[in-house]
Amino acid sequence: MFALVRDVAQYPKFLPWCAASHVQPPVDAPSGARSDEETLVARVDIAYMGVRSSFTTRNVHHGCEAIDLTLVDGPFRDLRGRWSFQPLREEGCKVTLDLHYRFAAGLLGRVVAPVFEHVANSLIDAFAHRADQIYGTGE
């Protein structure tokens, strides 16, 4: 599951609201960072119900355990989140997404807010469905 979430370039293939995604090359980890940390900057373009927008996040990968997201650019005042991956057995894991966001004031924020609410609410199910397509159900 970590590999599916990490691979932002593949999002348009299975997230129906994702029109495009762009990933910049990995960034050197800051001094003091764990050796298994990797940082990527990624932009996701959303198109849903006639609304188009994009946002860019800095994604810090902590081994295969977690991915932390922070806002770089987009229609938000604040966006941060954490994907956590807890192994349950060899064939599966528990995936948690803790996402916090506030939109910037103005018309764009009011227009994009309901769209992003749909996006946020559909993420876990979309990734679980993609995992079933790629890896099977494990049964």
UniProtKB/TrEMBL annotation:
GO biological process: cellular respiration
Signal sequence residues: none
Gene3D superfamilies, alphabetized: 3.30.530.20
Entries under Pfam families matching the protein: Polyketide_cyc (PF03364)
Stretches assigned to the Coenzyme Q-binding protein COQ10 START domain: 1-127
Gene Ontology MF: a single term: ubiquinone binding
Protein name per Swiss-Prot or TrEMBL: Cyclase/dehydrase superfamily protein
Organism: uncultured prokaryote
